């Protein structure tokens, strides 16, 4: 008899446990971790009745009820006023609740509670936290304290400041695309301001510049501001390394000295030099022509000698005579056609073709000398104009 009672009791307990196990269960509660201020948040509470009847679905924020859904009520859904919570009834049901125009007060812990009908009145519950984000109000982070150029051995001391947000954004530094070493970072306390308690993040970067920090002569410093997976902004500065100044390469010593000098005597000296060259040019050209003719050994020059002088001694006299001709012409003591050499007159005759070529050569040389004189005069005028301009500027 006693054994039968125990057996029946055990069977009843097992049946009850099976009923509870196979009854109402909560499948999933979906609450967004982050919602941007002013957006819409959707809360989901998915359950499985497993044959039971639904009594109610209730939503709480920080322990305070703000939404209730009872199928047998009319209307089945109703809301309760709560700061920061605005329920969109037209788009809400037993499984979904939509909150529109969320603000910073909407953040908190949300809990869903599902209850079955009698006789069990089984209840299941689950919760999740939601953070409302106020994005930075000043655009990308700002870098302050930097310089346009750095030399090896200089100290870099710069700060990155993000705009006001809620919560504070995470800041990080990168040097040439690589994360900055922790010992180079300077952390500051978060600044809280305003009625809503917006937060400002500041992160400093400090290190001594080394050769390795420059790549192709530049160093890139980037600050990144991030918040979860929906906000990422950056700001980057590219600074140059001071390069040693190289001395300018002079293409020509003459041209460099002519344009670099500021002395008043320069144009005068240049004009004197040009005049001297032009004065000596005709004699030099004539000497060059005669020397060329003498070197040709009779090809373009014919010297008429007495027959008795066509000998070794005559050849020596021939060479001496040509040399004396050149000397006399250089000193202006003889004419172009006849020259007195040791009391003997030597008739110098040029063949027509040689004479024509020589005259052409002389004309070309004179033209070159004239062009050089014109260029020198133009350079002198330009230098004088440049000095006048410098004097006017100085005044």
From TrEMBL:
Segments of skewed composition (Basic and acidic residues): 241-256
Keywords attached to this entry: Membrane, Transmembrane, Transmembrane helix
GO BP of this protein: motor neuron axon guidance
Record-annotated Ig-like domain positions: 37-125
Region described as Disordered: 241-266
The keyword Transmembrane belongs to this UniProt entry's keyword annotation: yes
InterPro entries for the chain: Ig-like_dom, Ig-like_dom_sf, Ig-like_fold
UniProt cross-references to Gene3D superfamilies, sorted A to Z: Immunoglobulins
Transmembrane segment boundaries: 284-306
Protein name, per record: Ig-like domain-containing protein
Organism, as annotated: Drosophila virilis (Fruit fly)
Gene name in the database record: Dvir\GJ16239
